[in-house]
Amino acid sequence: MKTDISEKWLPVYEALSSDVRIKIINLLAQNPLNIKQLAQQLELSSAIVTMHVKKLEKAEIIRCERKSVNGSVQKLCYLDIDTIEIIFPSKQSKTRNFHEFSMPIGHYSDFSVTPTCGIATPEKVIGQFDDPRYFLDPERVNAGILWFTEGYVEYKVPNFLLSAQQPEELEISMELGSEAPGVNNNWPSDITFFL
């Protein structure tokens, strides 16, 4: 999560201003827990823990889902982010020159993938599931998602700086996931990114 200083981020600052809520974040970083389990570990009442959980949910730091466990419905809480970056207002009086571009996911220059694998646009699967040959399909330039069990995708990023220019900052934003949606949102990541 990346934030600019503004009123819309006040719930984040409020959520992080409590020792109890920091303890809840630390507990959920280890395992998803229900309200009763959190209350027991914090030695607080369920009502007080529920209030703290609501503040963390409002800040989008955690999320809660109702799950059926052993015949009863429980509200399980999950840590929903890994980091928070707060960028304070700059003292610079002039705007720096910058170049911004988006690299579509299907514009990779090389790949090696092992099934289970696939590539898809927002509307449809490109080719067939579990067939790496479709990673060469010309329609891959329209892809919105790709997945594979093992391997890599490689991108060549353009550099528009002239030889006399020096970069001051590089910012990269991407979404990577190490598990299929709906399976386990807290799956340990085995993804490595190199630039």
Key attributes of the depicted protein:
195 residues; alpha+beta; Arc Repressor Mutant, subunit A; 2 domains; three-stranded antiparallel sheet; two-stranded parallel sheet; 7 strands
Short description:
By secondary structure, the protein is α+β, with helices and mostly antiparallel strands.
Q: Helicity range of the residues?
A: 10-25%
> Major sheet: order of its strands?
2-4-3
Shape: flat
Largest sheet: 3 strands, antiparallel
How many angstroms does the end-to-end distance come to? Answer: 21 Å
Describe the fold and architecture.
This protein has 2 domains: 2-87, Orthogonal Bundle (Arc Repressor Mutant, subunit A), CATH 1.10.10; 101-195, no CATH class. It is an alpha+beta fold and 195 residues long. The mean pLDDT is 86. Helix 3 packs across helix 4. The protein starts with a strand and ends in a 41-residue tail after the last strand. 20% of the residues lie in helices and 23% in strands. The chain contains 4 helices and 7 strands; from the N terminus they run E-H-H-E-H-H-E-E-E-E-E. The strands form 3 sheets. Strands 2-4-3 form a 3-stranded antiparallel sheet. A two-stranded parallel ribbon has the order 1-5. A two-stranded antiparallel sheet has the order 6-7.
How would you summarize the topology of this molecule?
Elements: E1 2-4, H1 10-15, H2 19-30, E2 33-34, H3 35-42, H4 46-58, E3 62-69, E4 72-79, E5 85-87, E6 110-120, E7 145-154
Parallel strand pairs: 1-5
Antiparallel strand pairs: 2-4, 3-4, 6-7
Helix pairs in contact: 3-4
